[in-house]
Amino acid sequence: MSNYMKDIEEAAALRKSQGGKWDHITPEYVARMRAQNRFQTGLDIARYTAKIMREDMAEYDKDHSKYTQSLGCWHGFIGQQKMMAVKRHHGTTKRSYLYLSGWMVAAMRSEFGPLPDQSMHEKTAVPSLIEELYTFLKQADARELNHLFHDLDAAREAGDDKKVQELIDKIDNFETHVVPIIADIDAGFGNEEATYLLSKKMIEAGACAIQIENQVSDAKQCGHQAGKVTCPHEDFIAKINAVRYAFLELGVEDGVIVARTDSLGAGLTHKIPVSQEPGDLAATYTSFLKTEPVKSAEDVQEGDMVIKKKGELHKPMRLPNGLYEFQEGTGEDRVVLDCITSLKNGADLLWIETEKPHVGQIAGMVNRIKEEIPDAKLVYNNSPSFNWTLNFRQQVFDAWKEEGKDVSQYDRADLMNSKYDDSELAAEADRWTQNFQKDGSKHAGIFHHLITLPTYHTAALSTDNLAKGYFGEEGMLAYVRDVQRQEIRKGLACVKHQDMAGSNIGDDHKEYFAGEAALKAGGKDNTMNQF
User: Fold this and answer.
1) What gap in Å lies between CA 44 and CA 206, rounded to an integer?
2) What is d(CA 176, CA 337) in angstroms, rounded to the nearest whole number?
3) String of DSSP letters for 384-450
């Protein structure tokens, strides 16, 4: 017996046990409402999606072409429409996630208004957005199932038994829009206890994967800006532990921790860790510092710190703000150490914040990490902060030049110029861009590709296009031609915005509750019937 029919029978038996008091309850309506509310808590979602991520990670280990992807979403509706589009165009939501970007929370969701990516926004805004995203994804399920229920009623009325069975099978095998969210906790919003408390809120809202970075929390900067300050490994491990304890306390044993390193672009640290023995983790971290040799007491000023390196005294270079500098050219070595240390201390996935999208550069670091951790995998930020066009045109230029190909017609520094758009080099660069995710996953261990804030840019671009025409000579045509007509012809569900907002679900519920006396919003006078 199908699950749907089983739920109907169970509801019927329960109604019968009430001795007539529940005779106004229709068992099939109970089954429908249960199907539309599969996930009753955020923890249900976190446990379900954590299992999906673990299965996807195992599948990627076997076949590197099975990478996963996501887009950053700053509102529940954006996340909903994204997953509906993925399912409609590609037939499945498998290996498609959502990303929750701290940058977009700061820029779009703070009560202070738009803020830079410096952890100044309310920490509660992060779990609130997770909850909102899943509310909208669950509503997408409810809407699609509601349409199947109406189709089922019509098939029964038409006496089409074959169609009835097909629809029951579709209901039983319905693929949810609820997918994993990788959620950005920045640098933990405080000390390790603060990290633990916020992690709990995020997990309770539904997060199965939490991404945390090794920047200093109160000096947090966007990963693609200057002035980044990293913390010693001991501090970062404590926060990884805090996230793991939160997962375990809440029974999400498969919870995923993404450890991000910003060391490639960070030249500063806020403190010098205490070494317990030569060559330990603290000593290794300290060995990367920029120092001056101390020959005598005269080399040391009031308040200076002195450390011992390889048997000799050195004075770490300290800035006027008290921060310490790393030696130039040590970024990649620090990244490799960060990643190996994180994976050995409880992290599941890595995130290396780079300054450009370059498969060779990423692979160079990942291959070093894999020498110690063979199954090391990356979450990679396909960042809008990169000028992708210029980066890949320059990469092709450099490759061609190394091959001995004539590149004299191109100005490397000016390759963004539109005069090159139809050139052979531009076409090749676009091919490299198109294949970046496939190549990165095959050669550089990238399990998950994300774009942090694409929907920030798409919202700006589409609004600019509409405003240009609507407030100009095109007037209403700008909306009709470029928005509504496109929605209709592309079959977007949101063109029927009343249905998308839940009007039809609400009408059905009213009928469940009040029968023929229900006052419904639909019917022949509903203008959306024009669609």
Assistant:
1) 7
2) 39
3) TTS-HHHHHHHHHHHHHHHHT---TT--GGGTTSGGGTTSHHHHHHHHHHHTHHHHHHHHS-EEEEE
Place of tokens 């031609």: 481
- Alpha helices (H) in 173-302, listed in sequence order: 192-205, 233-249, 281-287
Task: Return the exposure string of 144-155: e unless at least 16 CB atoms fall within 10 Å of the residue's CB, then b.
Answer: bbbebbebbeeb
Got the DSSP string for 116-155? -SSS-S-TTHHHHHHHHHHHHHHHHHHHHHHHHHHHHHHH
Cα separation, 60 vs 70, in Å, equals 16
Q: What is the pLDDT of residue 160?
A: 97
CA dihedral 281, 284, 286, 291 (to 10 degrees): 170
- Examine the pLDDT at 225 and tell me if it is beyond 90: no
**Catalytic option among 73, 208, 222, 231:** 222
SS3 316: strand
Q: Is the pLDDT confidence value at 526 over 70?
A: no
How are beta strands 291-293 and 312-316 bridged, if at all? antiparallel
- Is 331 annotated to bind a ligand? Reply is no
For residue 217, pLDDT over 70 is answered with yes
Confidence band, pLDDT 50/70/90 cuts, at residue 520: confident
Question: Against a cut of 0.90, is the pTM above it?
Answer: yes
pLDDT exceeds cutoff 90 at 519: no
At 223 the pLDDT is 62
Question: Is 146 annotated as ligand-binding?
Answer: no
| Phi, psi of 321, rounded to the nearest 5 degrees | -85, 5
Active site residue 222: yes
The 8-class DSSP code of residue 472 comes to S
The Cβ of residue 509 has, within 10 Å, a number of other Cβ atoms equal to 18
The one-letter amino acid code at 108 reads M
| Domain edges within the chain | 38-62+75-134+178-461
Strand partners, 318: 324
184 and 18 in contact (C-beta within 8 Å)? no
Q: What is the mean pLDDT of residues 376-397?
A: 97
What CATH number belongs to 38-62+75-134+178-461? Answer: 3.20.20.60
19 labelled binding-site residue: no
Q: What is the DSSP letter of 305?
A: -
Of all residues in the chain, what percent carry a pLDDT higher than 90?
Answer: 85
527 has binding-site annotation: no
pLDDT at 525 over 70: no
